[in-house]
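Journal club side-thread
Mid-discussion, someone asked how the predicted structure for our own chain would compare to the paper's figures. Pasting it here so we can look after the session.
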Amino acid sequence: MSSSVEDVGTETEIVIEVDDLHVTFEGREGGMARAVDGVNIAMRKGEIIAMVGESGCGKTTLARTILGLEKPASGSVLSHGKPLQYSGRALKAYRKNVQLVLQDPTGSLNPRHSVYEAVAEGPRTHGMDDETGRVSRALAMAGLRPPERFFLRYPHELSGGQRQRVVIAGALALDPDVIIADEPVSSLDASVRGEILALMLKLRDELGLTLLVVTHDLGLAWNIADRIVVMYLGRVVEQGPTEEVLNNPQHPYTRALLSVVPEMHGTEQIVLSGETPDPTKIPAGCRFHPRCQEVRDGVAEKAGVLAACQSVSPTILSAQIPVGETELGHDAACHLVTPPPTG
């Protein structure tokens, strides 16, 4: 497993901050889908955060909003303490520092462009100097050596792992502060996944990059992340240092996700009932309660919180660093963990 946050150092510079972010879309049958519904996250320099959850939980929409590809209905994205501006010029400057790596390298690369052209596209767009040097350094940092050997090759001539390294090199060529990786190894063979994850750890250590890894796979988070943010139906339901979250998951949803991770030997699999609810029809109370195994098995009723689960929304988590502190705690938005006040 990756080093814990404490081992990364005491650097607490916030590079990206999400403040009470809400993103909505018009639903298919009317109504507004609350894709991101009051999320707070702070990303520190040199930190790797894994954002996990099922399809439809809002993690990709949140990542797109952090990139400036979606505009929030309310709340804000801050870069080095300054709110993101949505003019064309401001977004262009911002995206130079915050780069995206997609899950499918084949779809990310133009089959008619050589490796050199693919990696040089970003520096050209931003008018950066020393194009050839930037392309060479980026390819070398991504593990494609000697870089000149790859300049005139095309995507179809490369393996899946090599194509993903070209995509990563395209991001590195711009000298970004932050890389957002959306399911970066899901399309790769198992034998290659470890190499790409090791590359990401190396880039963090050598360049001080901040990485936000969007994934449904808690096993991947176990191997790479300093901190885990678990999302369900648009909200953060648990967050904390990786080792604490995975060794002592507090939220029933996190426990269900963790129960199907192959690395968790001897853990009884938890089968959730039903599908993730329609984000235009979010349940009252805890939005997870219709599928919650603790409700289904009578644990919530025995603990005296069933009525609250069905009617009172748990406190929205703030995955941010309190002023004057250097570390985040381990929190879960669940009435079994923090019962609502009575009276």
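Post-session note: DSSP finds 14 helices and twelve strands in the chain.
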